[in-house]
Prior knowledge:
Layout: H1 5-31, E1 33-37, H2 39-49, H3 51-56, H4 58-70, E2 77-88, E3 92-93, E4 99-100, E5 104-117, E6 123-141, E7 144-164, H5 173-239, H6 245-280, H7 284-288, E8 291-295, H8 308-318, H9 320-341, E9 346-359, H10 362-371, E10 375-384, H11 390-457, H12 463-498, H13 501-504
Amino acid sequence: MPQSPLTMRILRILCVLAIAGTVAMAQTNATNTVRQLSLQDCIQLALQHNLDLQIDRYNPQIALFNLRGDYGAYDPSFSLSGQHDHNEAGSQILAGGFIIPGSISDDNSFSGGLTGATPIGTTYSLQGNTRDQYGQSFGLDTNGLIARPFENSGASASISATQPLLKNLWIDNNRLVIRIARNRLKYSELTLRLQIMQTITTLEQAYYDLIYNRENVIVQQKAVELAERLVMENRKRLEVGALAPLDLQSAEAQAASTRAAVIAANSQLGTQERLLKSLITDAYANEWANVGIEPGAKLMAPAPVVNLQDSWSKGLAQRPELLQAKLDVERQGIQLKYDKNQLWPELDVFGTYGFNGSGKEFSSALGDFQTTDRPFYTYGGKIIVPLANVRARNSYKADKANMQQFVLTLKQLEQNIMIQIDNDIGTIQANYDQVQATRAAREYEEAALDAEQKKLESGKSTTYTVLQVQRDLTTARGNEIQALDTYNKSLSQLSLHEGSTLDRLNITLETK
């Protein structure tokens, strides 16, 4: 029977696609090496080389440096200064035009100190200073104008301290900043843990998808084998006059179509390989661009072992997002404690104790100072009571309202986690049932094809029917591996929502 122009055009297009795919596959096999990787191999590579994880690992380090920097509020400050002053006073003109020359003085002074604060709110200051003044002035006595040289020195050393008794006693701004920074350090560590869990889950699911894509290539190749075998058989029947030419053309069209499906499956496989590579390397061009990945496992469907109460317990105890929400509540509690302390009046006690020294010469002043027989001291207290304290009172009220928001947000997150896990368990069971159903469907289609081919050989069936059963078998095989892929990914999703991904995959994170 003559072929229609449309049929011929379709056949030519499919043949060109098949040839192009064969050439592309040959080139790929010639230039690419294949590396077999297990899931654990991929996880290990991701933990070492995944760029997202490398970026996020800096966040806890930054938070730690910030925390250590906040402790700088308790670093003492040391000061030291020295100064020289020179002063010349103008001369005086007395009655009768008598002139008294002006005085000349020089002053050397040195001072030093150490100031700081303590974690209980105490502020302290250690101070020391010394001064030496010398020069000369002129005056009149019975002998006339005389010069009067002078020199005197002084020194002192003291320690002062101020201690709050109400406001800023149990928490002040320095302690507020440090406690919040410590809280944020834990938060950043949980953020990194969450990122690792999400990356590993994405990697695990990408690995299952890669297995599916490789299996799908095999499924499509089997479809090609079935179609080509039917073409060969139909060609023999046509030669003996037991088959119409149209049946052979239909079989050839089916064979070309299956070859095109192989091309598409290989393209999807390449895309999935590149996706997996992006998760496990930071040197794609140099190390992985020309390397193929062969999964070292098959898609399996072990019966699910799930327990809703156990999964809820894991999720409420291990989910990083929930632990972060609890840290948010804790941080707000720290802020609330500070705001409550700011409602109190400022009541401080203070005191100073030290020693003086003096003498005509600098050495004499230091000598007096060393004998410590000229002490001085002060002590006292002060109270400051804000008459309205509007800012502090309203800040406290606002933060109490914020605390209620954080508590409700925590409760909402707990509920969402429980619903997520409940949905995951239901999905896992449904996906497992889907695996069983698609496996049974595939087995049925294999038996149906075998029976239909025997009918065709005995003349009790048609090529069209066999082609239809072949397509159904290919679809059934694809559905089965797709169901296996979906089932395994749903198990990994449950682990993520439980917060047990790392435990399930035996991943231990090193803490520094």
